[in-house]
């Protein structure tokens, strides 16, 4: 059986309430045969005496009751909270929208099962719809930003890798009479001076192979103290382990949004646009 909405003696609508509550209100004298009512959602108002399911009402006094039909429904605090959380989700990257969705569903169920004692159905439903929309569109808005952040993190890692490799080459020289590593074996020469062999891998490069950098062949075994500090020492390359040479073995396409990582003989590392590569010093 459905639920009902009644008009109290104060002219206000109360409900929806189940049939058992209607019968109780009749017994309490709060409503009577002349009370207007409708089955919730139909919009058709009739006197209670016209409803077969309330046949006993025909025996009740015809005079309007002196008391209001019922206490007005209380707005669900959870329904309001769910809507607030959903709205805040627009500014919290969707984090609070998750709570708004959960609270909205709970509030909706409670309002429906309250027998008219709670209102806020619209708040809860709006919170659910808004939360779902936010959770659907937020990933599309965040993915580009996350992708950019990932590329930036990879570039920083690559920069740090070259820094470690350059410093390892200088440490090698310090322990070998100031002589820099042999170009043909530079990876093998310095690998004991880095924290891990992972330092030889750029996170933006192909996962295959052991090394994504190359050594300036013109620095092969030179006395470190006699090399110009601005000379290129280590640079990005796809030629593999112990790769060495000059500009011809440098990567042709940037791994880091048009930026190239280059380490110099003084141990410093710079991020350079393609337009500046032609100005690099390769001769010691």
Name the descriptors.
single chain, 284 residues, alpha+beta, Dna Ligase, domain 1, 3 domains, 5-stranded mixed β-sheet, 4-stranded antiparallel β-sheet, 11 strands, 35% helix
Provide the low-confidence segments as ranges: 61-69
Name the beta content range.
15-25%
Helix content: 25-40%
**What Rg do the Cα atoms give?**
39 Å
Topology pattern, helix = H, strand = E:
EEHEEEHHEHHEEEEE
Number of strands: 11
Number of helices: 5
Summing up helix and strand content along with how strands pair, one would put the structural category as: alpha+beta
Largest sheet: 5 strands, mixed
Distance between the termini: 94 Å
Strand order, main sheet: write it out. Answer: 9-7-8-10-11
Question: Could you say which overall geometry the principal axes of the C-alpha atoms support?
Answer: rod-shaped
Number of domains: 3
Give the averaged pLDDT, no decimals: 87
Would you write up a description of this structure?
The chain folds into three domains: 3-59, GYF domain (Dna Ligase, domain 1, 2-Layer Sandwich); 74-142; 144-279, no CATH class. Strand 1 and strand 2 (13-18) form a beta hairpin. It contains five helices and eleven strands. The strands form three sheets. Strands 9-7-8-10-11 form a five-stranded mixed β-sheet, covered by helices on one side. Strands 2-1-3-4 form a four-stranded antiparallel β-sheet. The protein has 284 residues and is α+β, with helices and mostly antiparallel strands. It has helices at 19-28, 77-88, 95-112, 121-175, 186-190, and strands at 3-7, 13-18, 36-39, 46-47, 74-75, 118-119, 213-216, 232-236, 244-245, 259-264, 269-273. Helix 2 runs antiparallel to helix 3 (95-112), helix 2 (77-88) packs parallel to helix 4 and helix 3 (95-112) packs antiparallel against helix 4 (121-175).
């Amino acid at each position: 059986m459905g639920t009902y909405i009644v008009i109290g003696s104060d002219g206000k609508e109360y409900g929806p309430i189940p049939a058992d509550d209607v019968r109780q209100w009749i017994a309490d004298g709060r409503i009577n045969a002349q009370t207007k009512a409708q089955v919730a959602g139909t919009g058709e108002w009739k006197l209670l005496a016209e409803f077969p399911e309330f046949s006993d009402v025909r025996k009740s006094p015809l005079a309007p009751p002196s008391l209001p039909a019922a206490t007005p429904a209380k707005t669900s605090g959870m329904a309001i909270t769910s809507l607030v959380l959903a709205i805040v989700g627009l500014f919290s990257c969707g984090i609070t929208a998750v709570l708004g969705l959960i609270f909205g569903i709970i509030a909706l169920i409670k309002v429906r099962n309250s027998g008219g004692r709670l209102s806020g159905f619209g708040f809860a439903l709006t919170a659910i719809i808004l939360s779902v929309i936010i959770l659907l569109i937020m990933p599309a808005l965040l993915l580009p930003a996350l992708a950019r952040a990932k590329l930036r993190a990879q570039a920083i890692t690559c920069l740090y890798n070259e820094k470690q490799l350059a410093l390892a080459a200088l440490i090698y020289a310090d322990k070998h009479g100031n002589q820099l590593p042999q170009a043909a074996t530079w990876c093998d020469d310095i690998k004991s001076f880095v924290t891990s062999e992972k330092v030889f891998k750029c996170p933006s490069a192909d996962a295959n192979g052991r090394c994504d950098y190359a050594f300036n062949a013109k620095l092969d075994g030179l006395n470190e103290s006699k090399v110009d500090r601005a000379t290129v020492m280590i640079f990005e390359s796809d030629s593999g382990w112990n790769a060495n040479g000059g500009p011809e073995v440098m990567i042709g396409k940037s791994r880091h949004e048009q930026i190239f990582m280059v380490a110099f003989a003084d141990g410093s590392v710079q991020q350079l646009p393609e337009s500046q590569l032609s100005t690099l010093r390769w001769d010691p």
